[in-house]
Amino acid sequence: MRIRPGAGVAAVYLLIAASLALRAADSGQSLTTEQKEQFLLTAHIEHVHNAPKGVTGVVRLTLSDGKVTHDAGVQRIDEHKPVFQGENGTTEANFKDSYKFNIAGWKLARMLGIEDMTPPTVERKFEGTSGAFSWWVDDVIMDEGDRLKKKATPPDLDAWNHEVYVVRVFDQLIYNMDRNMQNMVVDKNWHLWMIDHSRAFRLHHTLQTPKNLVQCDRNLLEKLKTLNQADLEREMKGYLTKDEIKGMLFRRDIIVKTFEAKGESAMYIRPART
Known about the structure:
This protein has a 5-stranded antiparallel β-sheet with strand order 1-2-3-7-6, sandwiched between helices. A 3-stranded antiparallel β-sheet has the order 8-9-10. It is built from 8 helices and 12 strands. It is globular. Helix 5 crosses helix 8. By secondary structure, it is α+β, with helices and mostly antiparallel strands.
């Protein structure tokens, strides 16, 4: 597990979620995803709750447009290195840790029909620096690390596993180098949220962990098949390079072939969240 300077995404959620709860009447829970995006782009910054030094940590802001008040998490890191040396002694070439990947992750989730599992995210400046403004997930009760420590069992284990399998497929598609227990958070309805993709979208034409492809939502698999270079280049302009998109499509092909080989026994339909 990697700990960044400043407060991490999930750590900020858990440290101040209770004390900064918003009234349901003005929290924006009834907004569409498009309305949430517009709100993130244009709402006035009312309050800065935490301001870690530098741009690597997540800053929590309260935004308001006069009718809706809701919080956003802001991440501004945009780090590129030819070679990165990890704390565990591993090295990675062509290393990137970028807020832009959080925006790309959101756009891709929408294309795949899994936008209910990662918060709306847009690009906007904060204190003169461009970053990813993400809708603050409502009613977070724990992260996955805490759940495992507490040995808390989801009330509907099948529904929970179906969401876990979506995360696994998505992370193989984007080659997420930093999925950990702290950037998967759980809301009060026991829905799982992916909240950080900043070390993803690698150039590799292979999967990171093929064994994680156990089952796949049927609708997600069909959406995966529709991805193509032209659509992705248009949607991801400014956030992913052509080579990053090409790598993702190579991985998509492997994922599709894997589940086609597994057959119907590996398929399920994830119900809509309520």
